[in-house]
Amino acid sequence: MASGSAWRSAARQLPLRLTVGAFFLNSGLSKRNADDATAERLHQFATGTYPFLGKLDAQKFTRQLSAEEIAIGAALLLPVIPAAVAGAALTAFSCGTLGLYLRTPGMRREGSLSPTEPGTVLAKDAWLLGIGISLIAEGLIGRRGPGATALGSWRGILRR
Predict the structure, then answer these.
(1) pLDDT at 93 over 70
(2) DSSP letters spanning 73-142
């Protein structure tokens, strides 16, 4: 039978994984067939902070961004993906967007970490960073062996 701590772990992760996963999946799907103007706007914004992205054309950049968001959303939504893996993907992505927030002029109030109105869109990614780190920590602390997942205890129940 499944242990009580495994069920508690799954219950703690479920709201985080469902809400953030659905958000990422929707965001990625909405960029999948972006028009040229949208792709150009996204690409210009990203290359202002990360110049190496200028090597990609706008449509290719937007398709890759879309694929990354869809993959992160799927990793969060699929209970077979370990919490630490899903959390690592979310953490890496949010670090990139927080870099945009910290390095792009006009996103923060002068001499402060407080966001301006346009900066609020990126500042919210601090929550995503916290969620990602929490999933990593819970995944590593609650790990019971190779391939353990937050819902790994369901395997025993499903085998019956």
Answers:
(1) yes
(2) HHHHH-TTS-HHHHHHHHHHHHHHHHHHHHHSTTSB-TTSSSB-TTTHHHHTHHHHHHHHHHHHHHHHHS
Exposed (0-12), middle (13-18) or buried (19+): which is 82, by Cβ within 10 Å? Answer: buried
* Cβ-contact 92, 99 below 8 angstroms: no
- Of the chain, the end-to-end C-alpha distance in Å amounts to 10
Residue 15 CA to residue 38 CA, distance in Å, equals: 31
pTM of the model: 0.81
Number of neighbouring beta carbons within 10 Å of residue 81 = 20
Query: Cα 16 to chain center, whole Å?
Result: 11
Residues 95-154 have pLDDT tens digits of 999 999 999 999 999 999 999 999 998 998 899 999 999 999 988 886 555 444 545 544
